[in-house]
Amino acid sequence: MTPLNNQLRHRTAHCLALWFGAGLLRPAPGTWGALAALPPAALLAWFLGWPGLLVGTLLLTVLGFWASGLYIRDTGRHDPKEVVIDEVAGQWLALIPVATYWELYPAAFLFFRFFDIAKPWPASWADRDLPGSLGVMTDDLFAGGYSFIACLLLMLAIG
Fold it and tell me: What are the tens digits of pLDDT across the range 92-137?
């Protein structure tokens, strides 16, 4: 790989890991990352419905493992707070049940932030014990999964 291609690969990974700069916002970069996840998720859902958001979430998750792993290697830091692609993937997962119900996006956002901060087991285990990008991504995917279930229950409750 040429030095230019290698540099482009690293810059692309960093841009994705920081979700185009949302992770650099303070305070609470995770909250900014989850908020920055909403517009592209809404666009995906608008054009492709929940199946498109599901496929987008899967692709973003794969990219997230790659981008966060490269960022961690480049910076030498464990779970840098500015890496928010994990929040984006978790937030997109949470939004799948309410994909085309825009009025429920705030609830999905609040569910995700609650579970991301509270980290009920096994999210706490993943955050604490899994190395590198595996730990970075997995705890937020668990939070997204819990939020997915909460959004499904919300949908059932409101009919």
Answer: 999 999 999 999 999 999 999 999 999 999 999 999 999 999 999 9
- What does DSSP assign to residue 18? T
Contact of 83 with 68, CB cutoff 8 Å: yes
Burial of 5 (0-12, 13-18, 19+ CB in 10 A): exposed
Radius of gyration of the chain from its Cα atoms, rounded to whole angstroms: 15
- Nearest CA to 64 among 105, 12, 6, 25? 12
Angle (nearest 5°) at CA 20 between 17 and 21: 90
Q: Judge contact between 108 and 94, C-beta under 8 A.
A: yes
pTM equals 0.95
CA dist 80 and 52 (Å) reads 29
Residues 6+ apart with CB under 8 A from 107: 98, 151, 154
Whether 10 has a pLDDT exceeding 80, the answer reads yes
Which is nearest to 144 in space by CA: 101, 100, 104, 86?
86
Alpha carbon distance 72, 105 (integer Å) = 31
**1 pLDDT above the threshold of 70:** no
Which two tokens mark 152? Answer: 């499904």
